[in-house]
Amino acid sequence: MQITKSHAVHGGTLRYLKHDSATTGTPMTLSVFVPPGEGPFPVLIWLSGLTCTEDNFTTKAGAYAAAAADGLIVVAPDTSPRGEGVADDDAYDLGQGAGFYVDATQAPWAPHFRMESYVTDELIALIDAEFPTTKTRSISGHSMGGHGALTLALNHPALFRSVSAFAPIASPTRCPWGEKALTAYLGPDRATWARHDASLLIEAGAAHGVYDDILVDQGDADPFLTDQLKPNLLVEAARASGQKLTLRMQPGYDHSYFFMASFIADHVAFHARRLKG
Q: 231, 240, 247, 101: which is closest to 171 by C-alpha?
């Protein structure tokens, strides 16, 4: 991996990195924070939302003081493949910056938009090879990335010790963002969408015996709450399946990184307890 920038922060080191991905067939970018000390350290993977790159979380979330104190490596990849020859769309909610953490099967997206495989296979292997990790990890994310964190954790439970999310798209099969993206990337057969819907997965028992709790924070002043995010569907699914899920409705908070910066230390601590327990 090529180091493009490096910064000292909270006693640790933050690096921006670039590498050629065999999975997406494109260069991919990410940031990696390594806490002070020799390690090895467990890893928290963060998945960002629509229009974001690896830089949004890195510069705005304020996660590194907590990560340094709890001894976690924090990895934040870009949200999609990018570059010349990579399919795109003029809309903000499809194409580059909107990978939805699925492996596309439809033209023109299929050649490069393979974000599920990128995160769960290539990225994890790369981080374990290049950094002093314990080869244990958890996952979290925001909005589209909250959807990604939940569905990747539920579909690949052997890879993750715990999962949390901020304002996740709780049921992409039942909201405009999700219906648009899943139709484009996976085609019109809605049966193929189900494994990318956290609410449906939880209702089917995918978290049973794997995750003792799932932490979700949601601002009640979020403009996308009712039409796009629908956290009530996660609660209903957890109740139906007997899965513990903690939904914290945070009064007055919106969809921005100010919301995440206010509660990110809680999520870092949530994962640290499970990674080190």
A: 231
pLDDT 10s digits, 109-140: 999 999 999 999 999 999 999 999 999 999 99
Token pair in block for residue 50? 């629509």
pTM above 0.85, yes or no: yes
Query: Which residue's entry shows tokens 């890893």?
Result: 43
Q: Helices marked H in 118-175 — which ranges?
A: 124-130, 144-155
Classify the phi-psi angles of 196: left when phi > 0, otherwise alpha if psi is within -120 to 50, otherwise beta. alpha
Active site residues: 143, 222, 255
CA neighbor of 68 nearest in space, from 277, 219, 272, 276: 272
Q: Which run of H or of E encompasses 65?
A: helix 64-70
* Positions of E strands within 10-132: 12-20, 27-34, 41-47, 73-77
Is-contact 236 197, C-beta < 8 A?
no
- Please check whether residue 156 is in contact with residue 165, taking contact to mean a CB–CB distance below 8 angstroms: no
Kindly report the length of the chain. Answer: 277
Q: How many Å apart are CA 111 and CA 123, to the nearest integer?
A: 18
Determine the pLDDT at residue 42. 98
Distance CA 116, CA 94 (A): 16
